[in-house]
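Structure tokens please, single chain.
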Amino acid sequence: MNLVLIGYRGTGKSTVGKVLARKLGRTVVSTDAEIVKRAQLSVPEIVKQFGWDHFRDLESAVCRDFAARDQLIIDTGGGAILRPENVDALRRTGTLVWLTATVETITRRIGGDTQRPSLTGTKSFTEEIRDVLNERTPKYQAAANHVVSTDGASTTEVAERILQLISRGSAV
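Here you go.
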């Protein structure tokens, strides 16, 4: 079984994934990093040249490919849950853990990141986070086997919470 980290960008999926990989002796993979590798373009360049639909198509292919493997820690992009087929593929072979954080925490964590293109193109940074989070929250809730807040917790603390949840629940 795989351990799949889902959640909005800036909730700690990448950093927590690395800690979990070390603790569990597994490989961590990133859907966004794999998309960049395959496209040989950054995420903003993919979106600018080909649009979000093309990016989501690449993301779906990567989700299917990673789900076909075993014993991975999968760090998904924030929008991976937007397509039900991605959630279905990842759930077939994995336990999905939704990492959450407040809008304020997310804003602080990703405010200076230029590798994350605007999702709306028209709103302030904070408004965009709030609106997109509101839109996606039901999808994250529906997809998740477990939910872990990352607000005010260290990466190690979040990883330990996840390990406690999965040791009680599913064999990951």
